[in-house]
Amino acid sequence: MTRPAYVAAFRLQDAGPTPGGEAEAAPRTQVEFVLHSASAPSVVTALGTEAGGCVDRPPHEGELLRVSCWWGPEESHWVARRESWGVALLRAEGPRESLPESASDGSQEAWELRERLSLPSGTVVSPLGP
Predict the structure, then answer these.
(1) What are the pLDDT digits (tens) for 40-55?
(2) How far apart are CA 56 and CA 68, in angstroms?
């Protein structure tokens, strides 16, 4: 049996300003993780809404994808990491200068496992890229 091959991406969408109608309201970004396949249904996982804007960042060693979000001095990172059982989606947040560089560099306490996407053994997952 041939396992499906997936292309992975974070989907970032404008979620509108912070509710409350303040003139200086923070922008918000809806973050989702998407697995696309030509031979299987797409998998979309809603991860939440982040304050500020979010952009794709180059993944560090051991990571499939990375996204950074920020507003003022606060920043959060989402990382997709391939594991033997599937894909782990991790999040870290805090003041910009205190965030760990990588989700794989031994600073595991800063990263929270938010989702476990189990995939059959042998499933290929590649990051969407240029």
Answers:
(1) 889 999 999 999 999 9
(2) 6
CB atoms within 10 A of CB 66: 21
Residue labelled with tokens 């606060």: 74
Q: Are 60 and 42 in contact (CB under 8 A)?
A: no
Cα–Cα distance list, 22 to 18, 49, 66, 72 (Å): 8, 18, 31, 16
Q: Is the pTM of this model over 0.90?
A: no
- The CA distance from 105 to 123, in Å, is 25
All structural domains of the chain with their residue ranges: 5-127
Token readout for 59 is 């993944």
Say how many CA atoms lie within 13 Å of 92 toward its Cβ.
21
Q: How far apart are CA 106 and CA 41, in angstroms?
A: 35
SS3 97: helix
The answer to whether 100 and 109 are in contact (CB under 8 A) is no
User: What order do you get walking across the sheet with 86-95 strand by strand?
Assistant: 53-57, 65-71, 74-83, 86-95, 112-118
Token representation of residue 107: 């600073």
